[in-house]
Amino acid sequence: MSLRMFKRQPPKLLAQFLVSLLWGIVPLSWVYVILYVGVRMAHERRTGVLLRMLLHGTMPREVLLRPWLANFLRKRFAFFWASLEVCFSIYYRHLVRRIQGRRRTSSPNSHTRIIRALGMSVVDGLDDDSLLANPRDTQKFPKLKEALARDDPRAIAFRKEMGGWFLGIRPEDITRLDVLNWLAWSIFDKYYDEVVLFDSPKHEMQLFLLDVLHTFEQRRGLRFPDRAVLSPIEEKRRRTMMLTLDPVDVHTRPLLLYILIFGLNRAVHAVLNMYGMRRMRMHGITYLLYMPPGWSVEAACKGEALRPVMFLHGLGLGLSEYVLPLFTMLRPNGVPASYPIVVPLQPWISYEFFSPRFLRPWQHEEAANVVRSILELHQFDKCKVHVLSHSMGTIVHTWFLRTWSSLIARSVFVDPVCFQLWEPHICYRFLYKPTESFIEFVLRYFVARELGNANLLMRYFDWTANVLVCDDIPEHHDPKHVRVYLAGADTVLNAWRVQHLLKRSGMQDVIHYDANLHHGELIMAPGHRVKEMLDMLHAL
């Protein structure tokens, strides 16, 4: 979700006030329903008469003697709508309780991904392969020949970054059990005591965790203590971020909000339909398709026509949030686009409460299979496609690169959350960090704490599948094939650190870094860069 930002943000108090007005619809609905029914029940015991009073809005004689109260409690439409909000709030809380259950996020064949992802957390920032005992063996977890010195800047940086996963305590006070629990979650999606309970007779899982823990000790130049002496305040505040094991925190919102966004998205699609973008389905997934007149796969294969563009959207309000980039794609130069456009829709991150897939988001295997089927249906697999992704869409982009990179010609990543997921900054900023500004509070309520988004992030987030290693991007150093757009003032990801990771990976020529922009402004604000991105994708 994007909100136009200025150098000086509105005060956080304003965001709290505006959100409280929206949030207050639900408790006020409860109050109105209770008063509407309660006043009538207090003066009328006959069921039939009481029902007629409720349906017709009539009042007992005693209440009519108080005109202000009678006028307030005889509004039938207000009672009807408040009743809907009450019923919806009950069902909403039921769904919140339902999604608290544990889900398996990692697939049985994810061992290689785990090795690569965790290995990158060790290698990142080391800048010297000679320190590694097995520098070229990507199938095994990297090991150091010897531990770094405690005062080595690389060890200090590693302690600081790793410490971000453990809230309320200093990096030096992170214990072995803390790390084993975090590793058990990140690798096996379990607590450490569950790993011990369900391990094989050879204790393979425990031995692997201990091996990784030892490497982490070498990398940070300091052993993890068996126990830490903490103050009562530190003991109370200490917490390890374990995304898919922690409780799912959802903030209530009214039915009215979902209906308004549903209507807004349908209105946007109606306009897009007028411009030739059709709504289609494949294996239960809805997607938008634009086919320009006269375009052919054969011509695209010969270079006589432009390749199709696939757009992968992020978290937020759905189509209505991406009006500007979508219309720019459809009319890049003020005339109809001469290339096909494919937009897979993701209702689980788009406030589409009424979708049957709202709480059943796709995972990497399904997404790769469904979208490949879409490409094959329209024969786009024969000519390859360009992919433009934003925010959470960059994770879906990652799945496609890993599964069928041969079908992707060029890639543009905007506000990418797929890089450096072994570091805590994205997880912490978006879900755990206390909000300090207007934009952070708005993002927390409207995006991070919304039911569909929270369900995806805290029950279906498979970080080893979602993290993108630069080597997974074909020709990742070539700006003719890859571009990464970063907003320096991003409140979701640490754009500065991502930029430096990409530079260390030889991608310095593909980075577009704007220090003054915030998350979403590169693609959704009035001064967006979508036309520039399209020009890069279609450049000869």
Structural class: alpha/beta
**Count of distinct structural domains:** 3
Unreliable stretches (pLDDT < 50, length at least 5) are 1-6
CATH superfamily of the largest domain: Alpha/Beta hydrolase fold, catalytic domain
Mass-distribution shape: globular
Main beta sheet, described?
A: 8 strands, mixed
Oligomer: single chain
Question: What is the number of helices?
Answer: 24
Q: How would you describe what is shown here?
A:
The chain is α/β, with parallel strands linked by helices and 540 residues long. It has three domains: 25-98; 111-240, no CATH class; 276-538, Rossmann fold (3-Layer(aba) Sandwich). The protein has 24 helices and ten strands. The protein has helices at residues 12-23, 25-43, 47-56, 61-64, 67-72, 76-98, 111-123, 153-163, 176-188, 192-198, 204-220, 232-237, 255-274, 297-301, 323-330, 364-377, 393-404, 425-432, 438-448, 451-459, 463-466, 495-504, 521-524, 530-538, and strands at residues 166-167, 239-240, 277-282, 285-290, 309-312, 341-344, 385-390, 408-414, 482-487, 511-514. The strands form two sheets. The chain has an eight-stranded mixed sheet with strand order 3-4-6-5-7-8-9-10, sandwiched between helices. Strands 1-2 form a two-stranded antiparallel ribbon. The longest helix is centred in the N-terminal third of the chain and has 23 residues, at 76-98. The radius of gyration is 27 Å and the shape is globular.
